[in-house]
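Q: A small favour: would you put together sequence and structure tokens for a protein?
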Amino acid sequence: MTDISRAIPQPRRPEFVRENIDRGAFGVVEKPLTAWERVYNVGAVRKLFILVALAVLWQAYALWLGKSLLFPTFTSTITAFWDGLVNGELLSRAGYSIKVLLMGYAAGIGLAALLTVVAITSRVGNDFLETMTSMLNPLPAIALLPLALIWFGLGNASLIFVLIHSVLWAVALNTHSGFLSVSQTMRMVGRNYGLVGPRYVMKILIPAAFPSILTGMKIGWAFAWRTLIAAELVFGVSSGSGGLGWFIYENKNQLEIPNVFAGLFSVIIIGLVVENMIFQTIEKKTVRKWGMQS
């Protein structure tokens, strides 16, 4: 066998001579971005452009309409908004609303977390959450306002009650759906490590379902903010004070329409700040950093 293998000619690989080529011979590999393209790629700049365009349209339509009692100009609204900030009235009203909102929002999230943990760890809890969500989630929180007035009276307790209702079911529904969508592989990993009960929820289910949890928190925040302003438009005075909704209602009765729009403008600004600064920061630090979203 040795002689035969020696007799058969062995294939030889051809030799290659590699020469260095100047990079300039390839031309432009990556075209540099123009100044306009660099600016356009910044999301904050694009959103700012949209806001400026809306302000220009607002001003143009108000001037064309010429009826300040129906639709004030953007400049008069900004003037009223600035005056409200300088004299401190808008700041105090906004602070009052945010304080009440945070109490109701925190209580709603806490109850939603408790219900969801019970639902994910027991069949009875799962049936209870599904039944209550089906019954109460379609019910507008503001519809409970008359009952809240009867049960808790005129004050923060009634506001917090309707806020809890607006937050609880949205957060619980999204959190429960996120828990159910966790893959079996992740679940088996947790069981192999011996995780059970709260440790299993904290270390496996919550990180894996956090995109759904964050979505539920966003929806709960939006529902709570709308419910609070609507409730304050009906009743918002407690111990001689009130929030942004009551500020809007008072100025409407006094026909101070620029102040009404300034109050609405404050509601919009707070919503933009919470959505684009707080929730986006949480999203970047969590789900995007973990590679769950692009």
